Amino acid sequence: MFTNDMVECKQDEIVMQGMDPSALEALINFAYNGHIAIDQQNVQALLIGASFLQLQNVKDACCTFLQERLHPKNCLGVRQFAETMMCTGLYDAANSFVHQHFVEVSVSEEFLSLRPEEVLELVGCDELNVKAEEQVFEAILAWVRHQREERESCLPELLSKTRLPLCRPQFLADRVQQDELVRCCHKCRDLVDEAKDYHLMPERRPHLPAFKTRQRCCTSIAGLIYAVGGLNSAGDSLNVVEVFDPIGNCWERCQPMSTARSRVGVAVVNGLLYAIGGYDGTSRLSTVEVYNPETDTWTKVASMNSQRSAMGTVVVDGHIYVCGGYDGKSSLSSVECYSPETDRWTIVTEMSASRSAAGVTVFEGRIFVSGGHDGLQIFNTVSERPHHIVSPFSKAKACFLCEVCLYFCTGAMRLR
C-alpha cells in the first residue's frame, strides 16, 4: 500500500474499513514485539485483522484457539465464520464437530436459527453421528416448530432427506405418522407410507433411492474392535469377549457370552453385536446371542435352522446373511437370512457349491462368496447372490483369514 504506486502512498491519513481499533493496535504491537494475547472477546476481531494484514501466524493461532474451544452451542457459528474467512482447516474441524455431536447441536439455538438450505444440507449428510434415524427426525421437527408459520412448508423436503425406512416400525406408526405436522401434509404422509412399505414389502426395497436405506456413518469417530470367542492355546473354545479402543490403545474384557464359541460368525446391526453359531468344543451350534454395548449384556435370540461353524456372515439392508459353513458332518451350501425386527431366520437361495471358511463380502447390494473348501478341495470359484457364478481366482484359496489359521480364528467386528 505504501511502497507501490497506489493512491494511499500519497495520503497523510488512511481510513481502514472493517478493522476493530483494539485488534489493529494489538496486531501493530505484535509486529514489533512478537507477542499477542488471544481471548474469547478478541479472537474474531484478531482473525479478521490478521487476514487483512496477511499475518498468517496470528491467523493460524486464532484458528487453533477457536478449534480447541468448539462446543455444540458454538460450532455452527464457528463453521460459518471460518467459511467467511476462508480458514479451511478450521472449517473442516468445525464441520466434523457438527457431525460428531449432531444430537447435542440439534438442540442449540444456533441450529434452530439455521436457514432452510443449511438444515437440508446437514440432515442429508452421510456422516451424522446418530444412534438411530429417529434422532434426525426429532431434530427436524424441533427446527420446524421453532418458527412454524415460516418453516412448515419446508417439512416435506426435509423429510425426504431423512432416512425414514431406517426408523423402527413402532416409531413410524406411533410417533411419525401421528405427528400433527405430518398428518396435515399429503407429501409427508406419502413418505411415511414409503417407509412403512419398506418394512412390510421387502421386495420393493431395491426401488427406493439408495441413500434412504444407507446407514449413516461418522467416519471421524474411531470405532471399537470386538474379538468374540475363539480358541485358546490348548484348543478349547472360549466364551471370552474383548474390546479394543484404538484411541486409548488398550484391550478390555466385556461380559462373556453364555456359550463358548470358536469359528463363530459375527455381525453388527443397529449398534448391536451378534454372535452366530460356531463350535463349543463338542458340537456345531445353531444358537445366536446378541450383545448390547450400552448395557454390557448378552441376550439370546432365535436360533438358525442349521448348525454351522466357519460360515460367512454379512449384513445387507439391516438383515444378517450366513452363507455355508460346516455342520459337523459336511460343508453346507445353504444360506439363511435373519430379520432383527421379526427375530426369525429364513432359508434363502442356496449357493452353487458347499463352502466352509469362505470369504464373504457385499458389493452394490449383492453378496459375493469367494473361495473356501468343502472338506475335500479348496475352491477358486466365486458365488454371487442372486444366484450366479463369476470368474474364478487364478489360484485356489480359502478365506483370507482362515487359510492361515483355519482352526484358531476368532470372530472380530468393528462396532460404532
From TrEMBL:
InterPro entries registered for this protein in UniProt: BACK, BTB/POZ_dom, Kelch-typ_b-propeller, Kelch_1, SKP1/BTB/POZ_sf
PROSITE patterns found in the cross-reference section: BTB (PS50097)
Domain BTB: 1-40
Pfam family, one: BACK
Record has rRNA-binding as a keyword: no
Keywords, ordered alphabetically: Kelch repeat, Repeat
Key word Transmembrane helix present: no
The name this protein goes by in its record: BTB domain-containing protein
Organism name: Pygocentrus nattereri (Red-bellied piranha)
